[in-house]
Design goal:
The protein is of the alpha/beta class. The chain folds into three domains: 2-42, no CATH class; 70-161, Translation factors (Elongation Factor Tu (Ef-tu), domain 3), CATH 2.40.30; 174-332, Rossmann fold (3-Layer(aba) Sandwich). The protein has ten helices and 15 strands. It has a seven-stranded mixed β-sheet with strand order 10-9-8-7-11-12-15, with helices on both faces. Strands 4-3-6-1-2-5 form a six-stranded antiparallel β-sheet. The two termini are 23 Å apart.
């Protein structure tokens, strides 16, 4: 009911129902939308204030067919962990590469020909020219197939898609970055951006957690991040296997919150990781006086087409692939079914 008659109307200014009647004949509870709508129109409830989600205005329009993958060659492959690698790509067509730009936090659809495609966030700096990077964990058919490829192999790329991290809105403010596991990859462009434009931002604190020391990403960059002026990096792991040296915190990432020096008065939070991690990050920050308006989360889940057509990533009126994947928590906290 909401999906066809409300959410589609909000997004596309047209109802999603075409009147086929299949929902009436197949509903095991014998719910008849036609009857329900007729009863509502005959005796509507008193009007009340309802907060509707307003999709952001799209800032970038692709100049090429968004359905058509562009061929990209793997320039290099770098191991991060036993199951995670950073791939450096460049488009085969130099004109496509020259025109290719993106914001921190957006994603591409990576197509392994004959296997399928998957939505993967870009992990390189938006200032990087000539190439771009994806940091990918091998966990499914597409990502496992990608793990079999090597330098010189060709994949298909569609994108970039979505809305990224609020690097413009964050100018002049302190930035608290909270990441868990593979969630550091979509946030790495934020670190690179602040590093390249350091005078435009206030204090910068990075809190990163992983299950084990072996699972931590970008370990060869930590010293470089620590050298960024007025920047603090805190690390934690859930557990340390026997025989492994670890000189940092042990516990979930929220156990690092007592180390936070940033004041919430003029600051924003960007966070990405497993849903359960982000849930408790948000809850803890709210208890500490941060407001939903200051917290930005990345909801990279169930994305399939990248262009708001298949509905796999839909949460109420929100299509994660196009309206996100980065959202201000205040905008989505009351969505039907909950965010996390």
């Amino acid at each position: 009911m909401y999906h066809k008659l409300t959410y589609y109307q909000q997004q596309f200014e047209a109802p999603g129902c075409v009147g086929c009647g299949r929902c009436v004949t197949t509903c095991v509870k014998q719910i008849d939308p036609v009857d329900i709508v007729a009863r509502i129109e005959a005796d509507p409830n008193p009007e009340k204030d309802v907060k509707l989600y307003t999709p952001p205005e799209k800032k970038v329009t692709l100049e090429i067919n968004p359905w058509e993958p562009q061929k990209a060659v793997i320039k290099s492959v770098k191991d991060q962990t036993p199951d995670t690698r950073t791939y450096t790509f460049a488009f085969v067509d130099p004109e496509v590469q020259e025109a290719y730009t993106y914001d921190p936090g957006v994603f591409n659809m990576i197509n392994i020909f004959g296997i399928g495609e998957s939505a993967i966030s870009i992990s390189s700096s938006a200032d990087l020219k000539g190439t771009f990077q994806h940091t990918v964990r091998a966990v499914g058919n597409v990502t496992n197939a990608l793990a079999e490829l090597k330098e010189g192999d060709v994949v298909g790329i569609r994108g970039p898609f979505g809305f990224g991290w609020p690097v413009e809105e964050a100018k002049g403010k302190d930035v608290l970055l909270v990441a868990g596991g593979i969630g550091l990859a979509p946030l790495r462009p934020v670190i690179k951006h602040i590093q390249a434009h350091r005078d435009q931002y206030g204090k910068f604190e990075i809190l990163y957690g992983s299950r084990t020391p072996e699972g931590m990403l970008f370990i060869d960059e930590y010293d470089e991040w620590r050298r960024i002026p007025d920047t603090r990096l805190y690390l934690t792991v859930d557990m340390v296997p026997p025989g492994v040296e670890w000189g940092h915190n042990i516990g979930v990432v929220t156990t690092l919150f007592n180390n936070i020096k940033i004041n919430s008065e003029n600051a924003i939070v960007v966070t990405c990781g497993p849903d359960i991690m982000m849930k408790f990050v948000v809850l803890d920050l709210l208890k500490r006086g941060w407001s939903p308006e200051q917290i930005y989360v990345s909801l990279e889940r169930r994305m399939s087409c990248g262009i708001k057509k298949c509905g796999n990533c839909q949460m109420g009126p929100v299509f994660v692939c196009q309206d996100g994947p980065v959202f201000k928590y205040a905008d989505i906290k009351d969505l039907p079914g909950g965010v996390f």
